[in-house]
Write a structure and sequence with these properties.
Order of helices and strands: HHHHHHHHHHHHHHHHHEHHHEHEE
Strand content: under 5%
Radius of gyration: 26 Å
Helix content: 55-70%
Strand order of the largest sheet: 1-2-4-3
Largest sheet: 4 strands, mixed
Number of strands: 4
Number of domains: 2
Number of helices: 21
């Protein structure tokens, strides 16, 4: 009894240690590189609106664009959480960091606790098993680190995705019904991705059909009652997903995205390529999986990898999901690999657990001792820039799409922010053309000047690191002058005609 209890404690301690280590590596990354995504600004503003009783359409007042449509918020609960966290300290980016660390810890702990148990147990059974197990654990930590993402609702959705894999792969009676409350939670955290749960449920049902038994692969075999229960669970999950503020729109969102040219023009919505970091990771992963996996795997175990991989190949923003799915696959493959190991807690297992706990403790203490400085990236305007803009009180200001939400957060309306799915295609084309991102040939000698006049822009705020070409262009314009500048930003004001 004592031996079993000790084993359970060692397993739990090791999983906690691995989750903390993964989270800490992500923390150190953002201490060095800082938060470079501005989308969380409009997410926290939407959360504030929701608490104040305002609708998503009320957020349109943040922008002074002439081209905009109604806005649908698919992540109300996540936005509220982000807003509450942003209020912890005066520096709102601290709340964003806390959000990322919380989601990273939850996701990594679920992964190691659900699929890492057998891997941890094999440490110390033999030299080969120990090396393989430790390699799988380290590689999984690295993959989960790669899945860090940005402070957006999709990190909560990633945690839901990981939980859904555990539910669907479980063979325990009635566990599949946990997908129903998960559907409700997921639909409110990130409704746009919640349909993925239904797709996963259907795929697991399909690969269990008798036709797949004719293939030279291992398949899931359900009893008649289990199959009926999982079908019922899928249907109820589909209905449960409707329990969200936007209702059936979470299922029609997919068609909206596929037809929206603005979204498809954004880098994170573009396909992953071999030339990207993702492509390099893929090459490494192919070798690792070949080395660590058993010769024969159930086709069901690769469903999450196939689903997440397909999404990533379509849109690179799903790379986090792919990395998490791979971590699960590797841990599950190594954990279920046939090998002889002792069931008792032995010295190597104790040493590994104690060492992991010691490293985790050191990381936690180090994080607490070190003062957390401001995490505002340099590309975000300083307070002096904000005050200068407010002093001049422009009627319509141009700012880069990626910084638009930051200005809106500080009470300065801009023409466009990163919620580009609610803007007209013509507007996005014009805003990109200003920076020379697209080539427009309509016979206009000076297209940038034409766009500035078209939208009655009387102030242009530019980041030196992102807009050097446009800064040079604006500096040569006689009807514009530099109203303010510092090492990071230049503000151009239109002269009175």
């Amino acid at each position: 009894m004592m031996n079993k209890r000790l084993k359970n404690r060692l397993w739990l301690v090791t999983c906690l240690a691995l989750a903390i280590i993964t989270t800490y590596t992500i923390y150190r990354y953002y201490c060095v590189h800082r938060i470079g995504d501005s989308d969380f600004y409009w997410h926290i503003m939407l959360g504030k609106n929701a608490i104040s009783g305002l609708s998503a359409d009320d957020s349109l007042v943040w922008s002074n664009s002439i081209y905009q449509t109604s806005y649908t918020n698919y992540s109300l609960l996540s936005d509220i959480i982000l807003y509450k966290l942003s209020c912890i300290r005066e520096d709102e980016t601290f709340g964003a960091l806390v959000y990322m660390l919380i989601t990273a810890f939850i996701t990594s702990f679920i992964v190691f606790a659900s699929w890492g148990r057998n891997v941890i147990k094999k440490i110390g059974s033999s030299a080969r098993s120990t090396i393989t197990s430790i390699s799988a654990i380290l590689f999984s930590v690295w993959l989960l680190y790669m899945a860090k993402g940005n402070p957006r609702p999709h990190l909560m959705a990633l945690a839901c995705f990981v939980v859904s894999i555990g539910i669907l792969e479980s063979r325990k009676p009635n566990v599949s019904y946990l997908a129903i409350p998960l559907a409700v939670i997921w639909a409110n955290l990130h409704g746009a991705s919640m349909p993925l749960l239904i797709v996963m449920e259907l795929l697991y049902l399909i690969v269990s059909l008798p036709i797949f038994r004719k293939l030279n692969v291992e398949v899931i075999s359900y009893t008649k009652n289990e199959y009926v229960g999982r079908v019922l669970s899928a249907v109820l999950s589909l209905l449960a997903g409707l329990c969200n503020p936007v209702g059936i729109k979470i299922y029609t969102r997919l068609f909206h995205v596929s037809d929206n040219a603005n979204i498809l023009a954004i880098k994170e919505w573009s396909p992953a390529t071999i030339r990207s970091s993702v492509g390099v990771v893929l090459l490494i992963i192919f070798f690792v999986i070949g080395a660590l996996s058993p010769r024969k795997r159930s086709i069901a175990h690769v469903i999450p990898v196939i689903v997440a991989g397909t999404l990533m190949l379509l849109h690179v923003r799903f790379e986090s999901w792919f990395f998490a799915a791979l971590a699960i696959y590797i841990l599950d493959a190594v954990g279920n690999r046939e090998t002889n190991y002792t069931e008792t807690a032995n010295s190597p297992q104790i040493i590994v657990s104690v060492f992991s706990a010691a490293v985790a403790l050191f990381c936690t203490v180090n994080m607490a001792i070190n003062q957390i400085h401001s995490l505002r990236p340099l590309r975000y305007p300083s307070e002096a820039v904000i005050n200068a803009i407010k002093d001049y009180a422009p009627k319509r200001m141009y700012a880069d799409i990626n910084t638009g939400a930051f200005f809106e957060y500080n009470g300065i309306p801009v023409i466009i922010d990163s919620r580009i799915d609610m803007y007209d295609k013509e507007l996005l084309q014009d805003m990109n053309a200003i920076k020379g991102k697209v080539s427009v040939t309509d016979g206009t000698p000076d297209y940038t000047e034409a766009v500035l006049k078209k939208y009655n822009i009387d102030m242009v705020t530019l980041c030196r690191g992102d807009s050097m070409m446009l800064i040079g262009y604006m500096a040569q314009k006689q009807n514009w002058c530099i109203a303010y500048q510092d090492s990071a930003y230049v503000i151009f004001q239109k002269l009175q005609e």
